[in-house]
Design goal:
- The chain is α/β, with parallel strands linked by helices.
- The protein has three domains: 295 residues, TIM Barrel; 236 residues, Uridine Diphospho-n-acetylenolpyruvylglucosamine Reductase, domain 3 (2-Layer Sandwich); 202 residues, 3-Layer(aba) Sandwich (Vanillyl-alcohol Oxidase, Chain A, domain 3), CATH 3.40.462.
- Helix content is 34%, strand content 20%.
- It has 24 helices and 28 strands.
- It has a nine-stranded parallel β-sheet. Strands 25-22-24-23-27-28-26 form a seven-stranded antiparallel β-sheet. The chain has a five-stranded antiparallel β-sheet with strand order 15-16-20-18-19.
- Strand 1, helix 1 and strand 2 form a beta-alpha-beta unit.
- The longest helix has 26 residues.
- Its cofactor is FAD.
């Protein structure tokens, strides 16, 4: 008995007929309507009776919404792997992660040779397939730096650029029958995909045994290879849609294949919609139910939780991996897992956590936190992983990634209140709100997650019009340190609500927030580049314009390019409506800060300014950053910033306008107490000691508080800069109430204190 614990999936194997080219498309749509998980197509590029399979897959992906598309299997000799890899990644991006790669070594050699492929021996075909898999995986691996260079006997890649990165980790399924192909599948494949009509008695057992042994020799667990089966012949319905055996017989036989032979994906070979409906609506649910019941009885471990010896050797000390809650086990990521490189880092910081837990709802967040509390290792919480400070990853600890909690719900008809999961991004929220004439100020990049920005502050491109992001939060849903799910608002848990708006990382894990958007139609987005030959004058001029401007104007300034030709300043500016007649004089005043080198200005929706962006975080050189708030850009302050830029200690200097509506809020109304300052200054550099030395000498005397999201400096004095008294004292007392054990101690920890 072999059950590897994979979730069961069901699919269709459709003929790509050219005589009626819309028929396979209709069949694919019928498969999706029947609840099947994937649609696959034969691939015979030399056969003039078939449409091209890859073209058909692209068409079907556009004509469906949910099903995965794959070749069954693609003819590798006639599809160069580098081209195939880019095509697959592109279709995966366009279909939001609905592509799988089914590969074969190539058959029908006489026909293939007529199409220009070289005839290979069986051994050469296997070697060619092995090299092709390496080519594809390397091109998809954009996390690795440098060009792809592979010098194989059959496939050579000389300095190819990596990418595009697919939307998800595209699985590679291999059609294999003979021992060498089976061993290749064990070493490099994600799935074994034979066809039942081609198997003889005992071939499934023999194939599983060969794959299991070869996988273990390669340091993999056998469960890392999904077992799949194209099913035809006597156990399928006839072409007329009439079963050749009762449905119950089908259910029993497929259940046996799953439990006794580990088959987890069943693909029905046939082009009849009644067949697909029966398979998807009657057979698949019953087989799933039977297998789930047997697994509960047997205590079967999910496949995703099984790791080979190579992965187990990379586990970190002091984490009880065997005690991971069952609800989190299948999505947990460890250092030896293939997904690890996609979750270990954040936007700018490299990380090496010992475990990444990825809960899907608030209850699983609670379970993740209670598990993490029992492990004597660091704990980090991540929403989207963009945080410049880098506190959403760690070394050897646990990361609770709430990215799956990304739902966005309008709570009233006019979109004046919206509920967003902590893992949603502000670009996604802008996309939902913009058609309804609303927006929320939310930083200046759409890939930032809700959970981080909505608990720290939120200086954004609508900030002078709308205030800080936290000023728009009407309620938080929070898992507290003791594992309780609570709601914090002006009516419930009011102390926690106060603390979450500015110091939320110290008090719990946010699972969702309720936000009050403002009315915003189209905006004017301006990007200017100015020569900064006199940076002091430029900064003073820009700052004075901002302080005197209407609240519709918000602008960020990025100072850099300290070369022989001098510095430049890039201005990213938003005017919070489309009234160009009123906006233009103010934009012209900004342009007067220096010699204008370029200017682009557009009327556009706010969702085009803060666009949705996927996270492909690979670390970014681990820069060190400092941050501070400034009240005015007077002569002394502008001169200090100019000297910082000239020092070479920082390669990125950003000044963001705040103030405006943010100043309307009482400094004691939220844990973010900085309401009179007009600017936020941040700088990044390669050396912590060098940047700290220059910053402490030049900037600290002019600094008026800190905005912690942009700072890597963890020295104790930063805490009082971020939370001046009496704010800090109140936070310490609330910390004792809500987190007396200081569980949340990774984000500028506030020590609990008795009242």
């Amino acid at each position: 008995m072999t059950d590897y614990g994979h979730d069961l999936t069901f699919g269709a194997f459709i003929t790509p007929t050219a005589s009626n080219p819309q028929e396979p498309v209709r069949l694919a749509q019928a498969a999706e309507a029947a609840g099947l998980d994937l649609v696959t197509f034969q691939d015979h590029p030399y056969n003039a009776q078939f449409v091209d399979t890859w073209t058909l897959m692209s068409w079907v992906a556009a004509a469906t919404e949910r099903v995965t598309v794959a070749g069954n299997v693609l003819n590798l000799p006639l599809r160069p792997p580098a081209v195939l890899a880019r095509a697959a990644a592109s279709l995966d991006l366009l279909s939001s992660g609905r592509v799988a790669m089914g590969l074969g070594a190539g058959g029908m050699w006489d026909a293939i040779v007529t199409m220009g492929a070289q005839r290979l021996t069986p051994g050469e075909s296997i070697d060619s397939l092995s090299e092709a898999i390496d080519v594809m995986r390397e091109l998809w691996n954009t996390r690795q730096r440098g060009m792809v260079r592979l010098d194989g006997e059959h496939h050579q890649v000389v300095g190819a650029r990596r990418g595009p990165a697919p939307a998800h980790d595209i699985p590679i399924w291999i059609g294999a029958y003979k021992p060498r192909m089976l061993r290749l599948t064990a070493r490099k494949g994600d799935g074994w995909l034979p066809s039942l009509p081609y198997l003889k008695d005992g071939d499934l057992e023999r194939g599983n045994r060969i794959i299991d042994e070869a996988a273990e020799e390669a340091g993999r667990h056998p469960a890392q290879i999904r077992r799949m089966l194209n099913i035809g012949g006597a156990i399928l319905p006839s072409p007329q849609g009439q079963l050749q055996g009762p449905v119950d017989q089908w259910i029993d036989e497929l259940t046996e294949f799953a439990i006794e032979h580990g088959v987890a994906t069943f693909i029905a070979m046939g082009d009849d919609p009644t067949l697909l409906a029966t398979f998807g609506e009657e057979i698949a649910p019953a087989v799933r139910e039977n297998v789930a019941a047997e697994r509960r009885r047997a205590g079967t471990v999910p496949a995703e939780a099984r790791r080979g010896t190579a992965a187990l050797s990379l586990r970190r000390e002091h984490i009880d991996y065997d005690a991971i809650p069952a609800s989190l086990l299948a999505r947990a990521v460890e250092p030896g897992d293939k997904e690890y490189d996609t979750v270990r880092h954040n936007y700018l910081r490299s990380g090496a956590p010992g475990l990444v837990l990825r809960p899907r709802n608030a209850e699983e967040v609670r379970e993740a936190l209670l598990f993490a509390r029992r492990q004597p290792v660091p704990l980090a919480v991540r929403s989207a992983g963009h945080g410049i400070s880098g506190r959403s990853t760690n070394d050897g600890g646990i990361v609770i990634d709430v990215g799956a909690l990304d739902g966005i719900e309008l709570l009233d008809e006019d979109a004046s209140l919206v509920r967003a999961g902590a893992g949603a991004t502000w670009g996604q929220i802008a996309g939902v709100l913009t058609p309804r004439g609303r927006a929320i100020t939310s930083g200046d990049y759409g890939g930032v997650g809700v959970g981080g920005l909505a608990t720290t502050g939120g200086i954004g491109l609508l900030g002078r019009r709308q205030g800080l992001t936290i000023d728009r939060v009407r309620a938080y849903e929070v898992v507290t340190a003791d594992g309780e799910l609570v709601r914090a608002s002006a009516e419930e848990n009011t102390g926690l609500y106060w603390a979450m708006r500015g110091a939320g990382g110290n008090f719990g894990i946010v699972t969702a927030v309720e936000l009050e958007p403002g009315e915003v139609g189209n905006v004017i987005h301006s990007v200017m580049t100015l020569s900064a030959q006199d940076p002091v004058a430029l900064l003073q001029h820009w700052g004075a314009v901002l302080e005197g401007a209407p609240r519709e104007l918000t602008s960020n300034l990025f100072l850099g390019g300290n070369t022989a030709q001098g510095m430049t300043a890039q201005l990213m500016t938003v005017w919070a409506n489309e009234d160009s007649e009123t906006a233009m004089p103010w934009l012209e005043q900004l342009a007067g800060a220096g010699q204008l080198l370029s200017h682009q200005g557009y009327v556009m929706p706010y969702s085009s300014v803060v666009q949705a962006a996927d996270a492909h975080h690979t670390g970014g050189g681990d820069p060190y950053s400092r941050s501070g708030l400034l009240t005015h850009l007077d002569t002394d302050t502008a001169r200090a910033i100019s000297r910082l830029a000239e020092s070479g200690a920082s390669n990125v200097i950003a000044i963001r306008a705040t103030g405006g509506a943010a100043a309307d809020v009482d400094p004691q109304a939220t844990a973010y107490a900085h309401r009179h300052q007009n600017f936020s200054l941040a700088a990044m550099g390669g050396s912590a000691d060098r940047l700290n030395s220059v910053w402490d000498t030049l900037i600290l005397p002019a600094q008026d508080g800190s905005y912690l999201s942009f700072s890597s400096d963890t020295r104790p004095e930063r805490l009082s800069e971020a939370f001046p008294e009496p704010t800090l004292g109140r936070l310490r007392r609330l910390k004792h109430e809500w987190d007396p054990d200081n569980v949340f101690n990774a984000n500028f920890p506030i020590a609990p204190e008795l009242s």
